[in-house]
Write a structure and sequence with these properties.
Layout (H helix, E strand, L loop, with lengths): L1 H17 L4 H14 L4 E5 L3 E6 L5 E5 L7 H15 L5 H13 L6 H18 L7 H22 L4 H19 L6 H9 L5 H12 L3 H28 L1
Length: 244
Amino acid sequence: MEEKVLEACLLAGRILMTNQAEMYRVEDTLMRIGRHSGFEVVCYTTQTGIFVGIDGKSNVRMTQITNRSINLDKITKINQLSREFVNNQRTLDELIECLKELEREQLFFPKWLEILSAAMISGSMMILFGGQLKGMPLTFLIGGVGYIVYLQMMKPLQVRFLGEFLVSFLVGVVVLFLSKQGIVQQTDVVLIGCVMPFVPGVAITNSVRDLLAGHLLSGVSRMSEATMTACAIGFGIAFAFQVV
């Protein structure tokens, strides 16, 4: 029984952490699963690993977090599964099987929808920062093409922050070249709009929430990761200004 409880906690925690859930959400979910099973679960979570044990017992298990992405759909499904378990709508074995199936699923939006969303964010953010409507179609196009390039570079590069640097550099070169040709009128707001899909907004928000919840280690590490991503974007734009 103890092994099954720890297995369920590790599966739920790994899925939540892999998809950028907040630390307090992870720990609260694991403790609720353990408490409903009749055990007081003790857990320690970081950005790169989860340690789970039962209070008063020597049995402790851990799992490593190597890849992280953003998938709020999986976080929502984990929350629903844990509620169903606590409300006696699922047994522990059913919960484990559902968690294993959820971990195997690739619940991502299709690439064309991601590209379209990135393009819409680019155009709308350009308007929000004071841009003119006549510059929105071009920002929409550059932002969408930039996201396509980003998706194509992520697999072969395998280097964190390099993809954001290169795509922001390429976007900066294109926008500055079009600005010199007189095609782009408001260079600054167009640049802001085009790089906005790559800004780590979720990481920044979660880091602040972790810090406010008292998870100082994870909050600082997430803030550092978000800061390095933002710096990579800024350095790419700055390098583009030097080249063009």
